[in-house]
Design goal:
Length: about 500
């Protein structure tokens, strides 16, 4: 996907132009229920909307952008991360009315919402937050509740025509919130007064009475969504592919907003899922997620933005927090210098892009060689072709590198240069010891990684029956105490000829 001057427009610019040309004032909306950790998969929705919002702004089109927190939804079941004894009795209650799992937030919903909002701040997503419980309790949704109750039969017809399923005769588009048991999914509507804006209810717990529409419950999802479009004036909204299926929530919403609420549906931007490598589509309820907060501990925010913005929304994104994540950091740096994916990078730079000028994979190795000491890291970078690097930028990237190594790095990427000859060096054969002694004698201070790599092969070949694999193994055992490590020639050049020669002589049985 190229920038404005390339062969094609970025998808966000295409969408922004279509929205501008529609003549409707752009109001972008996203919404997520904070029933569990808001994860990297959820991030696609809000970043898709943010990209179009920024593209509209670049076109000079005034726009509004808000995120609706669906915190008035009920707790549907005891998720794997919850204590069953504590939360099973709370199933059916709005998550805004349930205590926080850790006790540090106002509610269960806020426990997951607050880290998400902090992550949006770090991603530089400028969005107005609308909380569903406040929208209902303030009375902002009353007009839509009245229209839905009055249009109950029409809504039932639409649902049958679009989905093929008939609703139960007792079905209502409104879910009363029982004041006795606190559940929002256990009552039936017996009647309502449009003039007084009240609803009559009878709950399975035995409670019955009359409730105000303001705060007395909420609309069911397939009605709540188009009601929200009407109440907030939404004209643009991304949503997951599950809602975009034939007869899905968007199709029914289009007809309900027109026939029942007298509004128009938003311009749709359906998107595919982000899949967590090895775990499939992310879902908080399944526990197979990586939160945005933790992802931002691994890579700079512009990298996560780029992960989403470089792909069209209709394409699946595979998120692998292992080695491919390191490669993605370098892809962002390379795109900056090459001009490739220029528009995606521009939209990603909203998070404060600052290239370091050192490949992240290289820095991961150098930082480990230097024991994560900044001065030593900078000295090695200077010696290996990266002079004048910004110390603050390197320090920041070293933090990402250290957290990535601790949590997701493959074993072959993790190492620690041993300060003394490791015990594992006792495993060395006589041929390996001769090889290390010969390598120590021929290492020179001006050799680069390619020179050392060629020298290793040359000496191994001249050592007789020693295979190249055994030569490399001896080198890693002497330096790391493990049989594998970073690319050998490059690794030795990073450590320096003097240190390596001394260690190899010791391993060969010579003097220090």
């Amino acid at each position: 996907m190229s920038g404005r001057d390339g062969e094609s427009k970025h998808w966000a610019d295409e969408a922004a132009e279509r929205v501008r040309d529609s003549g409707r004032p752009p109001v972008l909306s996203t919404g997520i229920s904070p029933s569990g950790e808001i994860h990297v998969g959820n991030m696609r929705e809000v970043l898709t909307a943010d990209a179009v919002y920024r593209a509209l702004r670049d076109l000079g089109v005034p726009s509004r952008f808000h995120y609706v927190c669906d915190n008035f939804d009920p707790l549907r079941r005891v998720y794997p991360f919850l204590d069953r004894a504590e939360y099973e009795p709370r199933i059916g209650r709005p998550i805004s009315e349930i205590p926080c799992p850790c006790g540090a937030h106002p509610s269960y919903a806020d426990h997951f919402l607050e880290p998400f909002l902090e992550s949006l701040r770090r991603l530089r997503v400028e969005v107005d937050v609308e909380r569903a419980d406040r929208m209902y309790k303030s009375g902002r949704m009353n007009a839509c509740i009245v229209a839905a109750l009055e249009g109950r039969d029409r809504i039932a017809e639409i649902l049958k025509e679009e989905t093929g399923r008939e609703v139960d005769p007792a079905w209502s588009p409104f879910l009363p919130l029982c004041p006795a048991c606190g559940r929002i999914n256990a009552s039936e509507v017996g009647g309502f007064s449009a003039a007084r804006e009240t609803v009559d209810y009878a709950c399975a717990c035995g409670s019955a009475g009359t409730l105000p529409m303001a705060g007395g419950g909420k609309l069911v999802w397939r009605v709540d969504w188009p009601a929200r479009w009407k109440a907030l004036g939404v004209t643009v909204e991304p949503f997951g592919k599950d809602h975009a299926t034939r007869g899905g929530s968007y199709d029914t919403g289009v007809r309900i907003v027109r026939d029942v609420f007298g509004g128009e549906p938003p311009f749709p931007i359906p998107y595919e899922w982000i899949r967590l490598q090895g775990s499939g589509d992310m879902a908080s309820s399944k526990g197979n997620v990586l939160s945005i907060e933790r992802a931002l501990d691994l890579v700079p925010p512009e990298v996560l933005r780029y992960l989403v913005l470089r792909e069209r929304p209709q394409r699946t994104i595979s998120f692998d927090p292992g080695l491919p994540l390191v490669q993605l950091v370098d892809e962002v740096d390379d795109a900056e210098s090459s001009g490739r994916d220029a528009r995606a990078l521009t939209l990603s730079r909203a998070a404060g892009f600052r290239p370091v000028g050192v490949p992240f994979k290289h820095l991961v190795v150098v930082a480990q060689v230097a024991g994560f000491d900044l001065s030593r890291t900078l000295a090695i970078l200077e010696r290996t072709g990266y002079p004048g690097t910004d110390p603050d930028a390197v320090r920041e990237r070293m933090g990402y590198a250290q957290r990535w190594l601790e949590r997701y790095a493959p074993e072959e990427m993790r190492f620690r240069v041993q300060p003394e000859l490791p015990e594992e060096a006792e495993q060395l054969s006589e041929g390996q010891r001769r090889f290390l002694g010969a390598l120590a004698d021929r290492l020179g201070p001006r050799m680069d990684g390619d020179d050392v790599h060629a020298l290793i092969y040359e000496i191994a070949k001249g050592t007789g029956d020693l295979k190249a694999a055994e030569a490399f193994r001896s080198l890693y055992l002497a330096l790391l105490g493990k049989p594998r490590g970073p690319r050998a020639g490059w690794f030795v050049s990073l450590l320096g000829a003097e240190f390596c020669a001394r260690r190899f002589r010791e391993a060969a049985g010579g003097t220090r």
